[in-house]
Design a protein that fits this description.
homotetramer, alpha/beta, 6-stranded mixed beta sheet, two-stranded antiparallel sheet, 4 helices
């Protein structure tokens, strides 16, 4: 499950043209101290709709917002004329998505691939990125990802965040 | 996901009449330093067959044996005359179960519930117990358990085992 | 499974503004002699995407086109500004839908519900309509529908189409 | 879906040592006029437990007993010492199986394969046999079988049983 190409530098900044489900322009800095699951998707990508969106909704139910943040990123790299922010807004409402979703910034040089997607070197959609509480990109997956494995990775990052030892003075807890 | 009734004492000892898939009489002491998933089941329990056994097989594929040990425990508390060790042996072969499975020791006083099942206060089958690398029982679940949640708990226990900080000198890994 | 409100009159005509995956303007008359499964959907309806589209694709694989015709109908009754024919064209390509799909005709009087949807009295999307080889509407379901039950209904309509007796002179076949 | 090797002779007789969930010794003759789904299984066969038993239970829910009969046949061809009638009785209770289940007659000549299994030429378990209302074997499948396809075959046999035309005097019904 370990992604060898991932290093310890800060995750690339999110560059966005607009956000839904939040009044702010979000940046990863606002999430320091929390583990972040970043879901890059396109609203008309079948794999995103069948796998990533349901996964994101379940993560949202399962973990405390103060521990784990779920962020969507609409990384449109094809069919830009129909996957507009207007269409995305309807999509988010229909799929009852309430976590913040940013629209990846179109390349001013005219390339199909938007800027954040370029910076992360994403190979397509869906892509899932795990960012630790220190803001470092710790794993990045293209395509569907096993839930048991993903759970273990998130649990490990949450345990790191909480510090080493889960048992003190006769009381134990599992961090996740 | 936190089980408030679980305390920090060592997990109760396994009391067994025989073992399959190992030549030894196993005890939890042999697993110190590893996280243990203990799966208590009955071979004719539909929920065990549909959920716990497939889960155990996937855990076995996903994690290194040196980090996570999977142990089965055949806790027969009904229909003892047909869920015999002979029948269990065929069951394990048919379901291609290769991890160690112990047979919970029948109560010499004649109670239906075998001794380890009594000691753990299990309410039925399937029951899943998480034991940390220090030998403490950290969680116990009766019935089916969400894979994402279970993954997170295992990941957290693995991270604890590996020590706090997953990033050192410019290299990071996710413990799980 | 029997739909008591369905009578023996011909199914209402399809009224459409355009078609995809065909060069013709299709009408139900062209399908006389074949059983028809009509799938009414909206491209941003989660239930349609999760259930109806995969079902339609499996029906297409399973049955001969000469026996069973699959028709899609894009019945947009909300968010008309983003579920345009342009967007539908991308959706059909992304989901690899190759059976004919018509766009239900917008109501010239300005009602949200398009004309075919009105004529069939559909309550929402997805809706599945079964039309027999004589062109009669035999069943109509709103929402997800059990595959075993749907299979049985289709098999019965195919058997009707093929005539009563599946065994002649020492040889039998199952019509479906 | 058509099984070319199936001919129009009556299905081989069921030869059984005992029955569960009925007080009678059942034969296929008792089911003339009804379509029969015969499920051959072994209680410790993983594919049977995961696929055939749930399928049989759903068929039982979906169809009227007066139209479609579900019969189980315990065709033990290995591990005879643990898949005994006593063990089967517990299995049927645990899995809440209420349709009649016969135990295939062991071969008096000592072969592993019991007599009905031999007569049907079954290749293993699970095997599903479709028998029409005239008592003819119309299809036989080894292994898991697609629900939509199976539904269509059952629907066709039910329509045959009910006679050709499902619409009379302005009223239509789907036979299944």
């Amino acid at each position: 499950m370990f992604s060898p190409s991932i290093d310890s530098r800060p995750a690339p900044a999110l560059r966005t043209s607009c956000w839904f489900n939040t009044d702010e322009v979000l940046s990863l800095d606002s999430f320091k101290g929390r583990v972040v699951v970043l879901i890059a998707f396109q609203m008309l990508c079948p794999g995103c709709v069948a796998k990533s969106i349901p996964l994101a909704l379940r993560l949202e139910q399962l973990f405390e917002r103060s521990e784990l943040a779920i962020l969507g990123l609409h990384t449109v790299f094809e069919h830009h004329h129909v996957m507009t922010p207007d269409a995305l807004e309807v999509f988010l409402a229909e799929y009852r998505i309430r976590f913040p979703v940013g629209v990846d910034l179109p390349d001013p040089a005219g390339a199909d691939i938007p800027l954040t997607m370029q910076a992360y070197g994403m190979r397509g959609t869906p892509t899932l990125v795990l960012i630790d509480a220190e803001g470092r990109r710790r794993a990045q997956y293209f395509g569907a990802h096993d839930e048991l494995a993903l759970g273990a990775e998130i649990g490990a990052l949450l345990a790191e965040r909480d510090g080493a030892e889960g048992c003190t003075e006769g009381q134990c807890r599992i961090p996740a």
